[in-house]
Design a protein that fits this description.
Elements (H helix, E strand, L loop, with lengths): L2 E4 L14 E4 L2 E7 L14 H18 L7 E8 L5 H9 L8 E6 L9 E8 L1
Parallel strand pairs: 4-5
Antiparallel strand pairs: 1-2, 2-3, 3-6, 4-6
Length: about 130
């Protein structure tokens, strides 16, 4: 089985030596996405709700480029700088999973790339 690298201009380009996603068989591994505007490279972070929605839109763009949807996600990992914002992040995140949400963990970390407040990665399966 060979891996297929997934790249789309609809999501921010990687800021390091990694791919936006890798398709291995019928499983898609999506790298952590942050709230970067794919066109301008600017952060979208006026508030945590807006930032979370921007992250989810970037995830959606990578999923779409590989022919997947939110419904195909089996697991998400959420990294946040402040666990006190968990509820607000959870509310925004939950709008993308109306039924049968994926498995998930949410972890507070001391720092994230570009000093963002939230980063989300996922694994999707067809």
């Amino acid at each position: 089985m060979s891996n297929k690298i997934i790249f789309t201009k609809e999501a921010p380009a990687p800021i390091g030596p990694y791919s936006q996603a890798v398709l291995a068989g019928n499983t898609l591994y999506v790298s952590g996405q942050i709230a970067l505007d794919s066109e301008t490279g600017e952060l979208i972070n006026e508030n945590i709700t807006e930032e979370t929605h921007a992250v989810m839109k970037n995830l959606e763009a990578v999923l779409r480029a590989a022919g997947f949807t939110f419904g195909d996600i089996a697991k998400c990992s959420i990294f946040i700088k402040n666990m006190d914002e968990f509820g607000t992040i959870n509310d925004a995140y939950g709008q993308y999973f109306k039924s049968n949400p994926p498995a998930r963990e949410t972890v507070e970390v001391s720092k994230l790339p570009k000093n963002v407040n939230v980063e989300i990665s996922c694994i999707a399966v067809k």
